[in-house]
Amino acid sequence: MEITNTLGRRKTSVARIYVTPGTGKITVNDRTAQEYFSSDILDIIIKQPLTKIDAVNKFDINANVTGGGVAGQAEAIRLAIARAMVKIDPEKRVEIKKEGFLTRDPRMVERKKYGRRKARRRFQFSKR
User: Fold this and answer.
1) Would you say the C-alpha torsion 40, 46, 50, 55 has a positive or negative sign?
2) Structural domains in the chain?
3) Integer Cα distance of 55 and 58 in angstroms
4) What is the distance of C-alpha 69 from the center of its chain?
5) Number of CB atoms found within 10 A of residue 120's CB
6) Cα distance between residue 82 and residue 78, in whole Å
7) Total-model pTM
């Protein structure tokens, strides 16, 4: 039994997934994906790499996700699944990469600076 583990990140979310051959069961933090992500759209986002290469019912995925919100967590899982599928079958890389599932989205919240109200917003100027 081959177990593949991969890491995916998005914003401040970090997803560690473990892929095993199976029936298509996806578990996120010891709950089913439908249970963890209440929105159907987020569940679809997770399965995008699998549907692209017709492997929805071929692998069981166990994901541990920390940080961020549910949308960032879903996209982190998607990246991790895409990386795992490429690791399992390198020939599928072209299909997955063309859809943009292997691209790490680097956008994060800019930190707050001192002397400012937010990252770039200044305090209101008063002439008098």
Assistant:
1) negative
2) 4-99 (3.30.230.10)
3) 5
4) 11
5) 9
6) 6
7) 0.90
